[in-house]
Write a structure and sequence with these properties.
Chain B: This is Anti-sigma factor NepR domain-containing protein. The complex is a heterodimer of chains A (174) and B (76). Chain A is mainly alpha-helical and 174 residues long. Chain A contains nine helices and no strands. Chain B has a domain of 35 residues. Classes of the chains: A mainly alpha (174), B mainly alpha (76).
């Protein structure tokens, strides 16, 4: 069952537990009602993640009509989120990830975190493998910049890294 | 519910060629590639983040929905 992975992906992308649950619920209901459209031979995992991704896009479009930028809303929730337990370094990574454009964020989640192949991520996102590679590369570069990471150095909780996460902007969208 | 749920092309249908046409995603010739060691470090942190998210319990409503679907019942 891909449910925990779907929930983790939704949470990772939105950083909003309520929205993540809504997305997974919508994904399950759509998959349930549209299962006849599932093409045998394609990966069920990709199909489910495509549904979830499309559902998120729909929600973002709806919210975009209400607010200027849904990412700002989500970032705002992050800013007011109570202090979490757990690894502080991971919190920095999480905060930096939230600053990336959603297209890069989802590719980093799929490829970097969840181990999707480039081809499977391309199938999931409905775009070319070159696009996935480009988004992954840009996303990793932006993360490294935000976290002040260099090859061979582990992430440390430094003022430099923290300030970079708090103030930094990803270089480019896309 | 009428939304298309098969893989939908972004703005870029060039799947078979591997070329990109979306203006934000088109790789530029001089775009620097992340150092492989750095990439490994970044991905390791992403994996840890993912594992952490996996630990989250499913909400009660979600679990209920799953149970209903598993039992072949119609979701309310």
């Amino acid at each position: 069952m891909h449910l925990p992975a779907l929930r983790a992906f939704a949470l990772g992308i939105t950083r909003d537990p309520v929205l993540a649950d809504d997305l997974v619920q919508e994904t399950l209901l759509k998959a349930w009602s549209k299962f006849h459209l599932f093409e045998q031979g394609t990966k069920l995992r990709s199909w489910l993640f495509t549904i979830l991704r499309n559902s998120l896009r729909t929600i973002q479009r709806k919210r975009a009509r209400e607010v200027a930028d849904v990412d700002d809303v989500l970032a705002g929730r992050l800013a007011t989120k109570p202090a979490q337990e757990g690894n502080l370094v991971l919190r920095e990574v999480e905060a930096a990830l939230a600053k990336l454009p959603v297209e890069q964020r989802e590719v980093l989640w799929l490829v970097g975190a969840m181990g999707f192949s480039i081809e499977e991520a391309a199938e999931t996102c409905g775009c070319a493998t070159g696009t996935i590679k480009s988004r992954a590369n840009r996303g990793r570069r932006a993360l490294a910049a935000l976290l002040g990471m260099k090859a061979g150095e582990s992430i440390e909780l430094t003022d430099r890294a923290t300030l970079a996460v708090m103030a930094g902007q990803p270089g480019r969208s896309g | 519910m009428d939304e298309q749920i098969t893989a939908m092309p972004d703005k870029n249908p060039a799947k078979s060629t591997g070329k990109t046409s979306g203006k934000n995603d088109a790789p530029t010739p001089r775009e620097p590639v992340v150092d492989p060691v750095l990439q490994q470090q970044i991905d390791e942190n992403l994996r840890l983040l993912y594992k952490e998210c996996l630990k989250d319990d499913l909400s009660e409503s979600l679990q209920l929905l799953v149970d209903r679907l598993r039992n072949g019942g119609k979701p309310s």
